[in-house]
Write a structure and sequence with these properties.
By secondary structure, this protein is α+β, with helices and mostly antiparallel strands. It is built from 13 helices and 10 strands. The strands form 3 sheets. Strands 6-7-8-5-9 form a 5-stranded antiparallel β-sheet. Helix 2 packs across helix 6. The N and C termini lie far apart (50 Å). Bound molecules: flavin-adenine dinucleotide. The site of flavin-adenine dinucleotide has 21 residues, from strand 5 and helix 13.
Length: 379
């Protein structure tokens, strides 16, 4: 209905768009996404070459969407998820319309109790296989001898190792945990990577209800191109950003006490924004509160009882994230598959990498797959 209202014939065009997005999703998610990306040659399998024909790797997302829809509002709706892939829709391949298919057709799934329930599920499964966890024990160095990783050095302990799979930020592991003669990639390499965006995050506890909000809310009530340009061109703090508000207490009573709402606010920013200035957080909070008020009629300004921010600099201090990235490398064609940082270290036989900076890429499902891929590589 929304697409028909925005453009005559929009509903049919959307159906067509999503059918073709499904082909891309099926083609990408069956075989290519499971490859370890060790070499270009991996791609030369008849099944993969055939499926690549559906992927539209050479056409940009923006060109693809504009060929099919005239309405600029529809362009924005379809391009918004692309913003999280880390580059302008003019540089992201049309392949990523599969994200629209995943959003609109497969739907958005929410684990009751929140995302951490997924972590707890993993923990239960791997503990049943006899795995031990050492938390709050950052690795400070990897000891290597004659091309083999021998030990992990922790603050007050050293753990001998047969094999290491590093799941922390790739750049951090390589640059901060290994001696410089074992670095695989140069400064020039890292500086020339297109990183996916970082984010300003707010966690708000609000007294009373906010009837106008749904569980998922996208605030498109600001100029889209201006925000995109501050991320991709100006590389500065957005003045009047678009943002996403999750209100999980709408569907999950366990995430807020009765009579309160739980809000998670996400403002995409360019990576590397570490120059926070005074009142920056309050500036964005005021914008978010004002726009929620304008769209829903609910003034929450005096009802916020819990307020916590997580800024791009926190991605660096808490997670050692290169340039404070929140989602790894941007999904451009030149940073895909064998062009990503390698899963197996070139100079250390028993050091492997997994996670959002190596194959297949950023996002919860791809990083879970990344674990599966590295497991099969080791076997
Ligand atoms: C706000 C936000 C919203 C997102 N939304 C979505 C979404 O809707 N859908 C989606 O698919 N994806 C989403 N993502 C992306 C997704 O969460 C990530 O791509 C994914 O979690 C990355 O997993 P990872 O295992 O590579 O890294 P991480 O989950 O970052 O794990 C790396 C771990 O390594 C630890 N570490 C770092 N240094 C060391 C050290 N020296 N020693 C020991 N441990 C160390 C870190 O503390 C961290 O726990 C979102 C991300 C953010 C930040």
């Amino acid at each position: 209905m929304v697409f028909e209202r925005l453009e005559k014939g929009g509903a049919d065009k959307l159906n067509h768009f999503l059918q073709s997005a499904k082909l891309k999703y099926d083609a990408a998610m069956t075989d290519p996404v499971k490859l370890p990306g060790m070499s270009f040659a991996e791609l030369f399998q008849p099944k993969i070459v055939k499926s690549a024909l559906h992927l539209k790797l050479t056409q940009s997302f923006s060109e693809y969407v504009r060929k099919q829809f005239k309405s600029s509002k529809i362009h924005q709706l379809l391009e918004f998820p692309i913003l999280f892939l880390g580059s302008s829709p003019t540089k992201i391949p049309a392949l990523y319309s599969m994200l629209n298919y995943a959003d609109m057709k497969l739907g958005t799934w929410y684990p009751m109790g929140g995302m951490y329930k997924i972590i707890e599920g993993f923990e239960r499964v791997v503990r049943s296989y006899g795995v031990d966890f050492h938390t709050s024990a950052p690795v400070e160095a990897i000891t290597v001898n004659a091309g083999n990783a021998k030990a992990l050095k922790l603050q007050n302990d050293t753990v001998a190792t047969d094999l290491i799979i590093a799941g922390a930020d790739y750049h951090h592991v390589e640059r901060n945990l290994l001696p410089s003669d074992l670095w695989q990639y140069t400064d020039k390499y890292w500086d020339s990577r297109d990183m996916a965006p970082s984010a300003i995050i707010m966690y708000l506890g609000v007294k009373g209800e906010i009837p106008g909000l749904l569980h998922h809310n996208l605030f498109f009530d600001a100029p889209y191109q201006a925000h995109l340009d501050t991320i991709n061109i100006a590389k500065d703090w957005p003045e009047n950003p678009l943002f996403y508000v999750s209100n999980p207490s709408k569907t999950d009573p366990s995430v807020a006490p009765a009579g309160y709402e739980n809000l998670f606010v996400l403002i995409p920013t360019t990576p590397g924004l570490l120059n926070e200035y005074d009142n920056l957080k309050e500036y964005y909070l005021k914008i978010v509160v004002g726009r929620i008020n304008k769209q829903t009629g609910a003034d929450i300004s005096d009802r916020i009882v819990v307020k916590k921010f997580f800024m791009p600099s926190d991605f660096v201090s808490d997670y050692n994230a290169f340039k404070g990235n929140a989602y790894g490398l941007a999904n451009t064609l030149m940073q895909t598959h064998f062009l990503k940082p390698r899963m197996k270290h070139k100079k250390i036989n028993n050091l492997f990498f997994t996670g959002q900076l190596t194959v297949p890429g950023p996002g919860v499902p791809p990083t879970i797959l990344s674990g599966e891929i590295v497991a099969s590589l080791i076997k």
